[in-house]
């Protein structure tokens, strides 16, 4: 394969990773929005559309495998391909968390949320902001931005702990709230895991640029 074709295929893989990221971002926001509005139809759409995210991730992985088989890349080129596969895998898992939130929404049925959803949408906003910046760092090979994403995970962890403590208080005061509180705990946990996955992408960027994954 001529070098120009190889580089064009590497760029195509990167573009597909960015497209996958956009799909996942929309799934996360849609899952939270449908939960807030109790729109069970929209929740079901998130679940159905996860198959598209899965197929996109699989297509990226197959393209990367083909490039490795055809080109036998070394050094930086090999890291570019491996990083793309790893980032796509992290994105697919984030899509699974969005699907999980949508399934929780369906499980709630017609039940209203236990309390107004304020902190959970804030968690979603922060996690998606981290996702956007992690992908930006991936595209630009920017380890400074990647490190910022990695350290911002503490903020999401603090939000999760706040939600956890508040919902636990509800359950202790009134055992009849346990089921609805548990639903929201699951949602907040899924968002906390989304943020964790963005830090994994930040580590992949560090690997891509330096060949190491340690963050300062």
Give me a quick take on this structure.
The chain is an all-alpha fold and 216 residues long.
Key terms:
216 residues, 87% helix, Methane Monooxygenase Hydroxylase, Chain G, domain 1, mainly alpha
Walk me through this protein's architecture.
The protein has helices at residues 3-37, 40-71, 75-108, 119-140, 143-173, 178-210. With 216 residues, the protein is mainly alpha-helical. It has one domain (3-210): Phosphate transport system protein phou homolog 2, domain 2 (Methane Monooxygenase Hydroxylase, Chain G, domain 1, Up-down Bundle), CATH 1.20.58. Helix 4 (119-140) packs antiparallel against helix 5 (143-173). The longest helix is centred in the N-terminal third of the chain and has 35 residues, at 3-37. The radius of gyration is 19 Å and the shape is elongated.
Topology, element by element:
Blueprint: H1 3-37, H2 40-71, H3 75-108, H4 119-140, H5 143-173, H6 178-210
Helix pairs in contact: 1-2, 1-3, 1-4, 2-3, 3-6, 4-5, 4-6, 5-6
């Amino acid at each position: 394969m001529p070098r120009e074709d190889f580089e064009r295929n590497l760029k195509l893989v990167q573009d597909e990773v960015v497209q996958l990221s956009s799909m996942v971002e929309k799934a996360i926001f849609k899952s939270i929005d449908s939960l807030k509005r109790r729109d069970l139809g929209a929740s079901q759409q998130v679940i159905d559309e996860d198959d598209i995210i899965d197929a996109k991730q699989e297509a990226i992985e197959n393209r990367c495998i083909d490039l490795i088989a055809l080109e036998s890349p070394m050094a930086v080129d090999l890291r570019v391909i491996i990083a793309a596969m790893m980032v796509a895998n992290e994105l697919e898992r984030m899509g699974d968390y969005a699907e999980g939130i949508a399934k929780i929404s369906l499980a709630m049925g017609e039940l209203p949320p236990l309390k107004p959803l304020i902190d959970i949408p804030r968690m979603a906003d922060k996690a998606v902001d981290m996702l956007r910046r992690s992908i930006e760092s991936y595209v630009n090979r920017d380890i400074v931005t990647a490190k910022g994403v990695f350290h911002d995970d503490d903020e999401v962890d603090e939000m999760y702990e706040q939600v956890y403590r508040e919902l636990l208080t509800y359950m202790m005061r009134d055992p009849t709230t346990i089921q609805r509180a548990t639903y929201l705990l699951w949602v907040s946990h899924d968002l906390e895991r989304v943020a964790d996955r963005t830090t994994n992408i930040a580590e992949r960027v560090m690997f891509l640029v330096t060949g190491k994954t340690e963050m300062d």
